[in-house]
Amino acid sequence: MSDPATVSALQSAAPAAGAPLLDIAGLTVLLEVHGENRAVLRDVSLTVRPGEAVGLVGESGSGKSMTARAIDRLLPRGAEVHGSIRFGGSDVNRLAGADLRRYRNQVAMIFQDPRAHTNPVRRIGDFMTEALQANLAVSAAEARRRAIDMLTQVGIDDGARRLRQYPHQMSGGMLQRVMIAAALLTKPRLLLADEPTTALDVTTQAEVMAILDGLRREFGLAMLFITHDLDLAAAICDRTAVMYAGQIVEIRASALLHDDPLHPYTAALAAARPDIAQTAPRLRAIPGRPLSAFEAPPQECAFAQRCPYATDACRADVPGLAELDGGLSRCVRAHELRGRLGGAPDE
Amino acid sequence: MSTGVPAAAIDAPRFRALTSVRATGAAGVVSAIVVVAATFVAVFGPLLAPYDPELPNLDLAWIGPTGGHLLGFDVQGRDVLSRLLVGAQTSMLGPLVVVIISMITGVLLAIVAAWRRGAADAVISSGLDILFAFPGILLAVLATAVFGAGLPAAAIALSLAYMPYVARVLRGAAFRERSQPYVAALEVQGASATSICLRHLIPNTLPLIVAQATILFGYAMIDLAAISFLGLGVQPPRPDWGVMISENQTGIVQGYPLPALAPGLCIVAVVVAVNVLGERLFEQAQTARG
Amino acid sequence: MLLVSLLVASFLIFAAMYLAPGNPVAALSGGRSLPPSSLRVLEQRYHLNAPFFAQYWYWLDNVLHGNLGISITLRENVSTLIASRIWTTAGLVLYSSVLILVFGIGMGLVAGLRPGMLDTSTVIITAISAAIPAFVAAIVLILLFAVKLGWFPAIGNGTGLVDNIRHLTLPALALAVSSLAIVARVTRASVREEGEREHVQTAVSRGIPARQLIRRHVLRNAAIPITTIAGITIASLIAVAAVVETAFSLNGLGAYLVQAAQSKDLAVVQGISLLLVTAFVVVNLLVDMLYAWLDPRVSLGSRAT
User: Fold this and answer.
1) Tell me, what's the ipTM?
2) Which of B125, B236, B239, B256 can pair with B87 through a Cys bridge, CB separation 3.0 to 4.6 Å?
């Protein structure tokens, strides 16, 4: 197990250092499923600095969404949380009442399916101004004005008319833009984007991504961008973290991720995505299926069963996160595999 | 539930709400036992009855439980227990007939509407919409006024009243099933409409059909007993739980509640058991659909 | 659409005359033998010599003008006979509806919003109550509250408003029992379901305070299925009232309908049936309108499947 303090120190000791805005250390979360406690997150450590965009990439069951929910305190009832999540220095899990509400206004979450996440019987205007009126004591008229203004910023022009509409009168893409606008209204410092474009069709995805990225930079917001798409994360985030089976397995500067990954899983993910510029005789899939945290064997590297580079050392114990070339990797063989991971893995 | 309109509980989304209750498995087991016992009595009642259920003897009227008469005597001096046992026949058989008729017609209409879609669906749906205007009991009363009091008229009227509800729920399920890819595959292979419906559509909606039928049985039982209570269904002196309650109602104010309460208790017990089973079956049908 | 239903229903009720074994005259007279003068009156009033649809037209025309025919047994206008009894039934249904709404929704809300002992006991009680038919409830209530406790009268209508209400209490309760249980269950389940929805999570993530959350996001949304079930069960009261009126010897339309059916007084049966079906259809229409108002996704005229 790696020492969470070391991890955070390592992450902070990078160029453009500053006190981290979000500091997750040793986060382990267990959920009660069918009577038994199952781990969904194991020893997750991650930091996000002010204004920085960090990508969180993984397949289903990797725990990426769960991490976001843990940060926003949206875990289901009965969840057991170990480790710490600190935001601006305060322990998130100890917040209550007014402090908790204030925190929620500083961290804004954008969800995957905008239609499921908006109340179908309330107007868009109510949806957008709720938080402002409830928590920030903004008058109704002023809140509407700000909402219309923000709608223009996300590319929706006839804001006044839109505010009176209901969610079912809007397309998915437009609704997601509304969701982004609503999230930004409370002037948050951190955005948690949970696969914001997955539920949209491809052309809309690009538009929404552009808006999200643009506004984020304009307002100087930090962002944790969750996705299953490695390339997408690398495109708009400064650093990318890769998750597997409830653990972080690699954190790397996005620019280096594709060509010089530090973990076989990352390399496999990158290789599995068909490259439109090349033709290949076969699609490269990773054999087996992704494990959830509770399925991972307790005393070995979770990826060992599917890893083409696995050795006995990998099965001896759960590897810790170690520093390598400015990034972090959970592979015990990361050093020796440097250089061999980028590009096609050995069969 | 004494209502001629089972729409709420049968309508799929509403009923799903009802089944999100987490009852223990014990309830299911007890319910199954009750239903089996009731069926047994319904079939073998006349053989089990210790005394003649229809022979009146006014000297014995209202006498409480004594000797071999576990539940005492009713308003006309007949053995209550025997009447209960024999009455189970009409009380359970009538609803069974109603369920069979309404389920068969309802399922047929639903399948035809889902299969042919378009105009046929529109016509059937409109027809069903019209039938919705009649609550079951009302239709039964109307039928008995026209055709004379008695179980057959009431049973058929109830079947007609229930059919649109069955058809509506099954139509939704049939549509969903119909649009599954395997159906198109079978059609392309040249399978006939009838064979697809019989061999695939119906078996795949069977869990829902069974659940529906079970719940419907409960309603039918209550409505038919109500109609008999009103004197328009099973006619005295034949024993029937609904009739028994009506006959012995005077006993309540006179201080002899048992002959009226006993059949009431039987009705409630069986209906509760049937409802619990129906909910379970419905839950399973939902999860089977995934 | 419902108006068409009404029209067709009226046609069916009219056609009942012809469905009966024998000729329409026999049906109208309920099998009694009538003097030739009376027969001629019947023929005239119902235009029995005219073609079938013309007869329907005349009948419908009469109905719309308030002329529902004459009772063969009491020799009075059906309309008059109905008018004298309608308030009993209306009062009963209204009283029952209030009980269902207040206690049914109330219990459901309490059980849905507070998990625990209260919730479990509500579930069990409602499961059993939902299976208690109105006439069984009637005799139990009579036994408990009229005979043993003497709080309420067992039969009859009473005189004067307050006494009427007293007399209607047990019948209203008997009528309400099973519907109340169903409304409570659906309310509870709907509140639970809405509480788990994703849009509630969104509101939580924005820090909306709990009270507002429940009011605007859970209850407001749950109101839709709750209104639907409440409306449906209340509509059904119209028919089941007959059973309760008979059990309590109330002088209402339902009881009268049953008596007329037994004595084969077809004109009365037709008249009351028509009235009850109309009431039923109107209530359903109101429920549809309410549903459309509550749920902006639904436009009037489309029935949620």
Assistant:
1) 0.84
2) B239
Is A104 close to C199, i.e. CB distance below 8 A? no
- A254 in a domain, yes or no? yes
Domain that holds residue A261: 4-121+166-337
Point out the residue among C202, C221, C295 whose CB comes nearest to the CB of A111.
C202
Q: What is the pLDDT of residue B158?
A: 92
B169 contact C CB<8A: no
Instruction: Tell me, yes or no, if the pTM score tops 0.80.
Output: yes
The tally of CA atoms less than 13 A away on the side-chain side of residue A275 is: 12
Tell me if B79 sits within 8 A of B50, measured CB to CB. Answer: yes
Does pLDDT of B7 surpass 50?
no
The total number of structural domains in chain A stands at 1
Contact list, C5 vs chain B (CB under 8 Å): 129-130, 132-133
Beta strand pairing call for A22-33 and A36-48: antiparallel
Domain membership of residue A250 (yes or no) is: yes
Which tokens hold the place of A169? 């009168």
Q: Using a CB–CB cutoff of 8 Å, tell me whether B141 touches chain C.
A: yes
> What letter would DSSP give residue C105?
I
Is the model's pLDDT at B169 over the cut of 80? yes
Chains B and A touch, using 3 or more CB pairs below 8 Å = no
How far is the C-alpha of C149 from the C-alpha of A224, rounded, in Å? 69
- β-bridge mates for residue A193, sequence order: A110, A225
In C, minimum Cα distance to A123 occurs at C296
Residues of chain C with Cβ-Cβ distance to B14 below 8 Å are 186, 225, 228-229
Q: Minimal CA–CA distance to B148: which of C271, C253, C25, C22? A: C22
Distance CA A244, CA A228 (A): 11
> Is residue C208 less than 8 Å (CB to CB) from chain A?
yes
Distances (CA, A) of C291 to B222, C194, C225, C287: 29, 17, 9, 6
Mark A266-282 as b/e (b = at least 16 C-beta within 10 Å). Answer: bbbbbbeeeeeeeeeee
CATH class of B18-49+70-274: mainly alpha
Residue B18 at interface with chain C, using a CB cutoff of 8 Å? yes
Kindly indicate the confidence band of residue A17, based on its pLDDT and cuts at 50, 70 and 90.
low
Q: In what order do the strands lie in the sheet with A36-48?
A: A36-48, A22-33, A80-87, A90-91
Which amino acid type is present at position C276?
L
Supply the CATH number for residue A43's domain: 3.40.50.300
Asked if residue A277 belongs to a domain, the reply is yes
What does the pLDDT read at residue B159?
A: 93
- Indicate the residue of B126, B172, B230 with minimum beta-carbon distance to C305: B172
Closest CA to A195 of A218, A181, A178, A212: A212
CB contact under 8 A, C295 and A121: yes
Query: Does residue C43 contact residue C36 with C-beta atoms inside 8 Å?
Result: no
Residue A143 in domain: no
Domain ranges of chain B: 18-49+70-274
